[in-house]
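Action item from last meeting closed. Structure (504 res):
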């Protein structure tokens, strides 16, 4: 008689090891769906959905909140390490590659809390339907908080998976962002995925019906486009100047000459007069004071009286602070101390006039200012030195006497925030994403599409080396330039009637 030997029971240590590996694997898969690893829409959705459902099942099977926190943390660390790995490029440019690993450990560990805490919160609900509901709710709340705390890191917003490549289904699904917003739309999608865990046909049908309704709404929006009422002739210039050259003070004169020659060349190639010529963020390296010769050089390159050149530069200004000192039996005296304040600015200049200067409002932590410097000035001045960038007031820029040329300016990471549009007819975003790789640039661009849909304004997006493009009010790319190339494109921006949406 042949007997079958029973397999030895799995040891606790071995079971924990496999759970660790699974959590890390799921996190890598979810992060990879935001990178160039997944080139097509179906790949991104299948990869991200599978990883999300796998994490959901793993947290559902956890016996304690502590265990849920551990697996959620490992998932989050692997997810953000994969999605943000291209930050290495910024450390390489600045020559601080040795700091990349410790900074990534701290950053990903902190960001993983926005995954692990929702996992713990959902475990307070023992009934499966409530657990699934609140897991999705807490996940979306984590994304919302993360977008407010770390808005300059465009990684991991679930809805951006639908807008990265502008696919047929994705572009229709995200149209509802104008009424529901990014996060409510994300919640609908996650509840649809979680409904499969219930294994109930009625739950799946209800969740699927919401998604179908959203797709139908998107189709109706795309079919009912408002006809343009005004047009602007714009030239977008992508100089593709390396960051190392910009950081070299000896190269500033050469970069200015190249920029001026580029502006002149584009004007010569245009068959019709240009209304606006747009250069990216930090087109003119170095600090520019009031009355600086760089501005006059740009104005001298303008051939037509009606043409406006918009470019980015670091604007500096001197401020005087008066200090009073009183000595016994002596009159009070004042000592004037000069201070330099700098802004990340956008200039709009014509041949004989400066139409407007916009100073960036929402600054980039550690890139444009050091958090907590005011509390510990001596320590941070010794450690990193330099001056913090000063934010400016929110404003719209009007160029010319016609409201057609009223636009909402955005510099770099500001385009990631929801837009508060007042009278602006279109949005202009100038960027310098040369610090990052193609995947992070694509994630930034994907979120810009969502913000454009919320505001229902066309966007002209000009970056130093990409992604430079023109978006219509539905977030579709109507014109674009090749990444990492020195190129320009002459476009006609169609501007329709102003649309007021709940999210603008």
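Sequence:
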């Amino acid at each position: 008689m042949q007997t079958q030997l029973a397999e030895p029971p799995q040891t606790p240590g071995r079971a924990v090891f496999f759970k660790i590996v699974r959590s890390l694997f799921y996190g890598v898969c979810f992060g990879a769906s935001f990178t160039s690893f997944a080139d097509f829409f179906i790949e991104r959705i299948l990869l991200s959905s599978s990883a999300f459902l796998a994490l959901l099942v793993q947290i559902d099977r956890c016996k304690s909140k502590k265990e849920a926190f551990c697996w959620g943390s490992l998932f989050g660390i692997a997810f953000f390490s994969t999605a943000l790995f291209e930050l290495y490029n910024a450390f390489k440019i600045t020559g601080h590659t040795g700091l990349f690993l410790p900074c990534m450990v701290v950053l990903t560990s902190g960001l993983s809390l926005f995954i692990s805490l929702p996992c713990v919160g959902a475990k307070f609900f023992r009934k499966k339907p409530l657990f699934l509901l609140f897991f999705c709710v807490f996940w979306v709340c984590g994304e919302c908080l993360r977008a407010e705390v770390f808005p300059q890191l465009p990684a991991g917003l679930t809805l951006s998976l639908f807008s990265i490549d502008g696919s047929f289904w994705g572009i229709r699904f995200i149209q509802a962002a104008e009424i529901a917003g990014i996060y409510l739309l994300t919640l609908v999608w996650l509840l649809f995925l979680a409904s499969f865990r219930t294994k109930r046909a009625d739950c799946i049908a209800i969740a699927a019906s919401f998604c179908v309704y959203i797709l139908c709404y998107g189709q109706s929006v795309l079919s009912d486009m408002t006809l343009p009422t005004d047009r602007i002739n714009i030239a977008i210039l992508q100089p593709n100047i390396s960051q190392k050259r910009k950081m070299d003070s000896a190269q500033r004169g050469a970069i200015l000459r190249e920029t001026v020659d580029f502006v002149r060349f584009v004007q010569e190639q245009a068959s019709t007069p240009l209304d606006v010529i747009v250069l990216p963020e930090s087109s003119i390296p170095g600090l520019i004071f009031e009355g600086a010769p760089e501005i006059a050089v740009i104005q001298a390159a303008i051939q037509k009286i009606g043409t406006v050149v918009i470019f980015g530069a670091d604007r500096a200004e001197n401020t005087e602070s008066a200090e009073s000192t009183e000595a016994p039996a002596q009159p009070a005296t004042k000592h004037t101390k000069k201070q330099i304040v700098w802004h990340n600015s956008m200039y709009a200049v014509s041949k004989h006039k400066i139409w407007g200067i916009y100073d960036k409002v929402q600054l980039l932590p550690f890139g444009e200012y050091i958090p907590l410097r005011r509390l510990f000035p001596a320590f941070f001045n010794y450690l990193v030195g330099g001056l913090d960038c000063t934010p400016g007031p929110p404003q719209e820029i009007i160029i010319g006497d016609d409201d057609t040329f009223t636009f909402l300016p955005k510099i770099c990471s500001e385009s990631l925030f929801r837009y508060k549009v007042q009278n602006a007819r279109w949005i202009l975003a100038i960027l310098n994403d040369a610090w990052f790789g193609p995947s992070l640039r694509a994630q930034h661009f994907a979120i810009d599409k969502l913000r454009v849909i919320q505001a229902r304004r066309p966007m002209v997006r000009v970056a130093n080396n990409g992604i430079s493009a023109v978006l219509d009010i539905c977030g579709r790319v109507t014109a674009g330039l090749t990444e990492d190339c020195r190129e320009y494109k002459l476009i006609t921006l169609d501007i329709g009637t102003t649309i007021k949406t709940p999210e603008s």
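Note appended to the action item: Residues 321-337 have pLDDT under 50 and may be disordered.
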